[in-house]
Amino acid sequence: MRSTLRFPRLRRAATRAGVIAAAVAAVIAGSSVPAEAAGLTLTVDVGSVVRPATQVASGGLYGVGSDAQPTTAMLLPLNPTSFTQPAPGTTHLGNGATEPCCDSLDVGDNLIRAGAQQFIRMPDIYPTFPYQWQGWGDWESKVRKQVQDRLAETGMTNIHGWELWNEPDWTWNTGQAGSFNEGWARTYKLVDSLDPVTPIVGPSDSYYNHDRMVSFLTHAKATNTVPDVIVWHELGDMDWNSFDDHVADYRAIEDSLGIADRPIAINEYNSLNQMDIPSVALHWMAVLERHGAREAHRAYWFEAGTFDGLFTLQNQPTASYWLYRWYGAMTGNIVRTTPHSWLDGVASYDSSRKIVNTVFGGDSGNNTVRVTGLGAFGSQVRVQLLSTPGSGRHTAVASPTTVSTTTMTVSNGAISVPVNNMSAEAAYQLVVTPVNGPTTSWQQVYEAENQTVVNAQTRGASGASNGYYVGGIDNNTDMRSDSFVDFSVNVPQARSYTMTIRYANGTGAVSTHGLAYNGGGFSTVSYPATAGWAQFGTVQVTVNLKAGYNMIRLAKGAPNFNGGTGYAELDSITLT
């Protein structure tokens, strides 16, 4: 759970009906991208913040198969947010598999080390899909066993949702089980009676449907079984064009029924036909970031355990991997991008290093990326352009291609970067820094709101670095409700580092957190009182880190830690 911050409801500037119609015609003809539309401009506004960078789209369905596929070391550069994994004790055989894969409790430690949370898909206890209903007695026995197995895993801190069913709009057996709405309420109450702490997510329809959502939420409100997180799937060709409409419609239904805003998770996105096209994944990244999803998971169409095509079966990176690695490197804030026809992108700005990182694509020909708001970068900037091709999931791509590295003059705080001979299926990265490069050779400042935030909230404040901080780090009951922030940091050398923690403590007395890294034991960090909440001070501690990626946890509560005292908020950490 990277964040529970509520973001503004955003809308497309205009409906591109003509372009969409042309694209539909192209798909019918056997192509998934437009033939050519030159002279387009993607605009990146560095000064217009959308939300903290949390890699909303960097998750997968059955994306992790074990500790070895992918390994934690392979996952960490992608900065994954969350996954949906099968039920404990799963017997599910997905898409031609010959043995069950990816039990959520079996892969959970790998995901924790990578900083990712997970939903448990409960009906995957059944072996076949669509699921073969065996009666209410059988189902409720299976539900009880799953919850009991999870509760026995007292060190498993990354279960952030029970998904009660999957695609009930066509897999629920109404003839034998009764209506889905009644079945949802009955299952919800059973799970809640066994585990009243872990969120419940759904309804998980295979596509967004207004009438079904109204019926479901009306019944759920009447039975006090409204999900904690709303889930649906987006699996059609070019469905990214409709995602903003779906979000707006869903929010209007909530408002009409008097239901408080729920986080939105799209735990299956991208179509069978377009899954392995980097530019299509880029379109999904853009709309998921722009229109307020909390998290989203790449769909499972083929082999489990490959992060849904980001790796080959031999654990080698594919073309799409490099797009997600560029996206995983985004820090600071997501800033506003304005698409032009099919040319779209996602951009971030890290003010601590002065880096603008833009991933983009979706059209062919000679196009332009215009970056504004660069006044703090000086009169000249360094501009690096990379690309990754449109190859599929069975083709290993050892590295992206460096297209160009140039120096450009900033005019009125802006540059216009020509990108010639674009491929409509490829994806591109544009990195803009001051002319001498980033202000530090490696990332030293890590914003708490960019990290894995568990049972706490991302909040905004003018005094917070980057404009956001993490508060509500209040719980230390058990592995389901413990509050902590996991910082994934990447350092150049194995050695001791001074870690400066920027925090706020409005209690008037000293508060404490537990500090652990890389699965080691906990020490105690003390936070003297500050002037108030969201009024920040600093403390320093020493951490001994290995070269490369490390996971640092600051916790009010966590397994193997007795619990912190008082309350403290976290703004950032700085390693020097």
TrEMBL record:
CBM6 domain span: 444-576
Annotated signal peptide: 1-37
The name this protein goes by in its record: CBM35 domain-containing protein
InterPro entries: CBM6 (IPR005084), Galactose-bd-like_sf (IPR008979), GH (IPR017853)
Keyword vocabulary terms for this entry: Signal
Organism, scientific name: Glycomyces tritici
Coiled-coil zones: none
Pfam families documented for this protein: CBM_6
SUPFAM superfamilies membership: (Trans)glycosidases (SSF51445), Galactose-binding domain-like (SSF49785)
PROSITE patterns: CBM6 (PS51175)
Top-level taxonomic group: Bacteria
